[in-house]
Design goal:
With 171 residues, the chain is mostly helical. It has one domain (15-167). It is 58% helix and 0% strand. It contains 9 helices and no strands. It has helices spanning 15-31, 49-58, 62-71, 77-84, 88-93, 103-123, 126-133, 145-148, 152-167. Helix 6 (103-123) packs parallel to helix 9 (152-167). The chain is globular and about 45 Å long. The two termini are 22 Å apart.
Length: 171
């Protein structure tokens, strides 16, 4: 019986975003008097739900959204803007580090990053993952996975499909 060859897990292409989030978590924990030490994360999937919640409710700097957008080579700028739920003008206005995305856009930014990382792990490369994100999928009623990341329900469908692809269950 053949065993499926599992590709090694890849790191995140969004290192700058991860560092900024880690710094915010470190700052929050240094303020808390009896905070337990926490592990460093290399991917968004390593964040705890409470860490994610705190980051989303505080809001992420607009500059991080611009940095993340620059990492995409195959996915178009308009697709990323739509997935995050912000306009080009919002990104232009957020030149300083102090302007924050609202909680909805911050949540969608983290969701897009996490799904992209998961797709990289499943497909083995950033390029293949990006191509998958912008290609209509039969299992998603011929919708592009990136278009479904605008809602939590759509994101769950995309994550479920990635898991099924990873395990070889397409129906």
């Amino acid at each position: 019986m053949e065993t499926a060859l599992k590709l090694p897990a890849h790191g995140s292409p969004f290192g700058g975003l991860l560092k900024a989030i880690q710094a915010r978590i470190d700052d929050d924990q240094s303020v808390a008097s009896n905070a337990e030490p926490h592990k460093r994360f290399k991917k968004f999937a390593d964040m705890t739900p409470l860490q994610t919640h705190d980051i989303v409710t505080e809001g992420l700097p607009v500059v991080l959204a611009r940095e993340m957008m620059a990492e995409y080579e195959v996915v178009g700028r308009e697709d990323v803007l739509q997935a995050i739920g912000v306009s080009e003008r919002t990104l232009q206005r957020g030149k300083d580090n102090e302007r924050l995305l609202d909680s909805n856009a911050s949540d969608r930014l983290l969701r897009l990053a996490a799904v992209t990382e998961h797709a990289i792990d499943v497909f083995g490369s950033k390029d293949a993952a990006e191509r998958w994100l912008v290609t209509p999928a039969l299992a998603l009623d011929q919708r592009k996975p990136i278009d479904l990341l605008q809602s939590s329900e759509g994101a769950e469908l995309v994550k479920s499909l990635l898991i099924r692809i990873d395990y070889g269950v397409y129906s």
